[in-house]
Amino acid sequence: MEAGCCCGFVRLRLEQAPLVVHCCHCTSCQRETGSAFSPNIIIEASNVTRLPPAAPAVPAYPGAPEASPPAGPGLHDGQDDGSSLVETLIPSESGEGQTIVRCPKCLAAVWSEYDVPLVKYIKGGTLDRAWLVEPDAHIFVRSKRPFVEISDGKPQFERYYEKIATTQAAALSGASNIAAQIIEAYKAQHPFTLDLVQFARFVLLTMITAPPNYQWQHFLEKALPAYVRVDDGRDLEKRETRLDSLTDEARSKPKLSLRNTLAKWFVDCMTLGAIVNVETVPIMVAGYKVWPIASIVSFSFVPVEKRLVFLSFIGFLWGIYMSLAAARI
């Protein structure tokens, strides 16, 4: 597939199929494009090749599958004068911001970059044959314009993908399990050998339980937002933070312990009584010692852009504890 700006100065070739294609309905994409949503082709930067400038052309459409020359005079003579692409950092609904890369001549947005520099978000409208690419999902549908009806049957997400959070959680779970196995081997003074069954069990269990937990966190944020701006906001913010943290712990820890209980029941064929006595209750007690403090510190003192890193580190340590606890049973 090839793509380009309006005037032909920026030309691209996509060497491989994209990782995923989505339609983003966030308010930032609406403002940026002047439309109701933005189709994005997510692809590795290494699979995008910059081509020499070309003469401007009217993009093709199903009734005319070949691009046609413009009716008026050419916008660009096809010569590369060394102009640099224009990069603009703008805010986004996700809170992370995005860098829009534009043609220096016609200022058409060609792709976006986020916090992962190895991936480009090619603007779907820049494709020479844009109708050949269908979206795999719709994101930020909470901001969807009322007149937009999504009837293609593709997955819809209130914000961004749950699968990204699930992948990160699974990777973290796998890393903590490996670390726990290394610690166990060191304590037992025998060579380290990866227990693939235990590793796969932790990763699979995380992949199963992460999506509902993801939805639970969003529900908590809606029901008990950490920060509510009112006139006497400072006291209310602190109260909501404590409620958010304690509610999360009071409701999620029994669920997580029940999850581990059922996993042991099915995977290890242990009796429910034995599991409750040796695993469920100790894990719940340990959880109440760790996560309320971690949540309060996170919501009260850790900047929002660092919060994920902080909680990921706590989760990594917790995963090691869980793996060591499972190894003792």
Automatic annotation (TrEMBL):
Keywords: Lyase, Membrane, Metal-binding, Transmembrane, Transmembrane helix, Zinc
InterPro entries cross-referenced by the UniProt entry: CENP-V/GFA (IPR006913), Mpv17_PMP22 (IPR007248), Mss4-like_sf (IPR011057)
Matching Pfam families: GFA, Mpv17_PMP22
Main localization, broad class: membrane
Taxonomy, superkingdom: Eukaryota
GO cellular component: membrane
Region of interest (Disordered), ranges: 58-86
GO MF, one example: metal ion binding
Residues passing through the membrane, by range: 308-327
Domain CENP-V/GFA: 2-49
Subcellular location: Membrane
Record membrane topology: Multi-pass membrane protein
Family label: Belongs to the Gfa family. Belongs to the peroxisomal membrane protein PXMP2/4 family.
Protein name: CENP-V/GFA domain-containing protein
Species: Cytospora chrysosperma (Cytospora canker fungus)
